[in-house]
Amino acid sequence: MSLLSLQDFGVTRRKRDILRGITLAVGQGELVGIIGPNGAGKTTLMRAALGLIDATGHSSLATLSAHERGRAVAWLPQSREIAWPVDVQSLVMLGRIPHLDSGQIPSDRDRAAVDRALQRMDLSAFRDRTVTRLSGGEQARVLIARALAQETPLLMADEPIAGLDPAHQIATMRSFTELASDGHSVVVSLHDLGLAARHCTRLIVIDKGGVVADGAPKEVLTPDLVRDTFAISAFLQDTPDGIVFQPLEVKR
Amino acid sequence: MTRLGLFLSAFVAVLFMTALVIGPANIGVAQSLKALVAGGEGPMTLVMREIRLPRALLAMMIGAALGLAGAAMQGYLRNPLADPGLIGVSGSAALGAVLAIQTGLAAAFAFGLPLAALAGAVIGVFLVMALAGPRGSSLTLILAGIAISALAAAFTSLVLNLSPNPFAANEIVFWMMGSLADRSMTHVWIALPLIVLGSIMLLSLSRGLDALTLGEDAAAAMGIGLGRMRLTLIFGTAAVIGASTAVAGAIGFVGLVVPHLLRPLVGARPGRLLWASAFGGAAMVLAADIAVRVILPTRDLKLGVVTALVGAPLFLHLIYRTRRDAV
Question: Which residue of A has its CA nearest to B260?
Answer without folding.
Answer: A84
